[in-house]
Design a protein that fits this description.
The structure is a single chain. With 392 residues, this protein is α+β, with helices and mostly antiparallel strands. The chain folds into 3 domains: 65 residues; 107 residues, DNA polymerase, domain 1 (Orthogonal Bundle), CATH 1.10.150; 188 residues, Intergrase catalytic core (hpI Integrase, Chain A, Orthogonal Bundle). The protein is built from 13 helices and 9 strands. 25% of the residues are buried.
């Protein structure tokens, strides 16, 4: 395909034989020969190539341009965060920024992008996990998250042609040990239901226990998703756990970006009806300061979203008073799952209600519960056989 001028900015773009689009631009003239020094960027579409070309030529014009072979990693990470993370959740971007600021830049930021090697990254991650002398390192999960941030940034660097291969491939990461689930048993459930009475978060605790919804999903639940007539709840949003000071709380897609709808027990719908009534009363008392622009089910007294930490702290106080301080709010989700399995509800139904990406994952997490049920069933059958023999 012949070359053509970009829609804006200097340089040209063309489509290569491999299907990619190439943006070609000049960064100046060679002092010795006077010939133009040209550079190329690559993209998957003409529009993307034009956008990259405009950014590159603007950088040349304002003298902020750095040639790829001279670009330090921290400079590329800054570009990546500004230009290539627009389509992700705000909470995810904040995590990327924190990983770059706190871990990657201090250790590797000064290394030239083109000189970064796999063993440099392996050594860096090993150090994060082991920690410095006298201090504990990051958890295996946090170490993996830091690697994930760096890997994504370097993948884009490969795609735009700044480096040939991603040096963060083939890294050995520490094994993440799955935390042991700690659901409430039958006796603890009864004690818990008594303990949460008159708590500001009573309805949240109750709904979590009998639906298995995640805390972010409960705090992001909107009234439009509660169908009182058909007794269903639709989960298609979650309240983002944003930590940046001064930022507005906002909704994002649920985990795995997988919306779901499920039937709930009538008792849960009655609880939500009571919440709606209480919210209408609170709105009348609040008057002009009321602001539930997100149409949330669970709000404070003036219609604002409830912080995750508020609910978590209230839960912690309750279970601590029960004598089980090691429990987390997420264990209510595990309690719902194990309770449902024990009641004989099909695994597929439980998996869909929880929003797991597969039934196999549900079985992997709660397999020990089904194994215990099989053992109990075998014991009951054996008892039945022995009873028949005695009566024969």
């Amino acid at each position: 395909m012949p070359r053509k001028r970009a829609m804006n900015g200097s340089g040209t773009i063309r489509q290569r034989s491999d299907g990619r689009w190439e943006a070609i631009y000049s960064i100046g003239r060679d002092p010795g020969t006077g010939k133009l020094i040209r550079r190329s960027l690559y993209a998957s579409s003409a529009e993307e190539a034009s956008k990259k070309l405009r950014a590159a030529t603007a950088a040349v014009d304002d003298r902020s341009y750095i040639e790829p072979e001279k670009m330090p990693l921290k400079q590329w990470l800054k570009i990546w965060l500004q230009e290539y993370t627009g389509g992700i959740k705000e909470s995810t971007k904040l995590q990327y920024e924190a990983n770059v600021r706190l871990h990657i830049n201090p250790a590797l930021g000064a290394v030239r992008l083109c000189e970064l090697r796999t063993h440099d990254i392996q050594s860096f991650l090993n150090g994060l996990y082991r920690g410095k002398k006298g201090t504990s390192g990051l958890s295996a999960k946090s170490t993996k998250n830091v690697h994930g941030t760096l890997h994504k940034a370097l993948d884009i660097a490969v795609k735009v042609g700044y480096i040939r291969i991603n040096p963060s491939n083939n890294i050995e990461l520490p094994r993440i040990e799955r935390e042991e689930i700690q659901p409430l048993d039958n006796e603890q459930i009864g004690t818990f239901l008594t303990a949460i009475q008159n708590s500001p978060s009573e309805a949240i605790f109750y709904t979590a226990l009998y639906t298995g919804m995640r805390l972010s999903e409960l705090l992001g639940l909107q009234w439009r998703c509660v169908d009182f007539k058909n007794e269903t709840i639709k989960v298609d949003k979650q309240l983002l756990h944003v930590r940046r000071k001064g930022m507005q709380r906002e909704l994002g897609t649920p985990k795995n970006s997988k919306p779901r709808k499920f039937r709930v027990a009538p008792a849960v719908m009655e609880t939500l009806k009571a919440v709606k009534k209480q919210q209408l009363e609170a709105r009348l008392l609040a008057g002009e300061v009321w602001d539930n622009s997100l149409d949330l089910v669970f709000t404070d007294n003036i219609g604002c979203s409830i912080p995750h930490s508020t609910v978590e702290h209230q839960y912690k106080r309750i279970v601590t008073d029960m004598g089980i301080p090691e429990r987390r709010f997420h264990d209510l989700r595990h309690t719902y799952a194990t309770m449902s399995i024990s009641l004989g509800i099909p695994i597929k139904t439980i998996s869909e209600t929880l929003g797991h990406y597969s039934t196999a994952f549900t079985m992997d997490v709660y397999g020990h519960v089904t194994q215990q049920m099989q053992d109990d069933a075998a014991s009951l059958i054996q008892a039945s056989i022995m009873a028949r023999k005695r009566n024969a």
